[in-house]
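note to self — DONT lose this again. spent like an hour looking for the file last time. sequence + predicted structure for the chain T wanted, 395 res
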Amino acid sequence: MTEGIGLMEPLLPPAGASGMGELNDLAVDLVSKASSFAGRLNPVVRKSVGDLVRNMNCYYSNLIEGHNTTPRDIDRALADNYSSEPEKRALQKEAVSHIAVQKMIDDGKAPDFYPISSKYGQWIHKEFCGRLPEELLWVENPDTGKKIKIIGGEHRDGTVQVGRHIPPLPENLDRFLTRFDEAYDPKRLTKLERITSIAASHHRYVWIHPFYDGNGRVVRLMSYAALRRAEVGSELWSVARGLARQKDKYKALLQAADEPRRGDLDGRGTLSQQALVDFCSFFLTTCIDQVDYMSGLLDFRMLSERMRIHVEEMIAMKELPKGSYLLLREALLVGEFERGQVEELTGLKDRAARDVLYALVKKGLLVSDTPRGSVRLGFPIDVVERWFPLLYPVT
């Protein structure tokens, strides 16, 4: 059966739509705040924080999917320390797969497709599924009980239902995805429209539901990559955290945007224009909230003070030697320093200075690529809650 591609219109709220003024204001606000946030950290510290945020992004994306893999479980998996429990081990491998794909995006190793495109979605799905254990590559048809094997990067060849929504038939997927690619082609959009389109496409992609499973995770990574391409996103913040912290509202607004037009004052498409505007407003507001949150969290004065208080407590409990904070503050300020600078920075001599460095390296608060190389800040799981309060629950 041929389904008209007009079934998913509008793909973008038109210029004169009710609420478009607010969406434009939100896009401008996001550009402004993201730009002022961008150059705040030393590049070396920025990369280390980016590694931490990548793990956080994985944790929250898993949470949205109902896969509660704890930060400690993720941390252990990244150290190749997997649980002996089959279910927990599988979820740890899922987390490692997610982090590996996002790292490719962060490191510029993704293909040169525009992130809001069907080809980019296929690339994410293929890379992600290619790293999953066999047991996570099967889904079950709830009506027939039939097991279906997920093939990474391959669109579904059967029908699915998501709540009340029935996505396009498999024989029509190519037509809907071609229209998706055309509508969100950045060459056709202004700067503000490109930012709004990231929000709108987030819903329309899951509405198409091109894969049997993994569509939500794929589109969140697409959105992450697109925000980076638009030069408002960065490795320092993640919209997934904000979406997960409002998971019920996120899912309710996605579902509302599946609904048909609500009458003559609700646009001219098949789907509700106002519901799409509402979802875009929520998505962009969530982005701004996360930029504000991370901007405050990474303020040098406040971060260094939280580090100082924590280190002083550790010194009092004899978990760290005196002089530890001076080295950590230097790493936060300049990014990395040579081991030969330790005496000068601490004011201690020979063995005492080396003992401070050794203690910090042993606890993972300073890390190095080689035994004698320069050192930089590390963010072991045990300090995350103190240095980055409410970033994510450390359990």
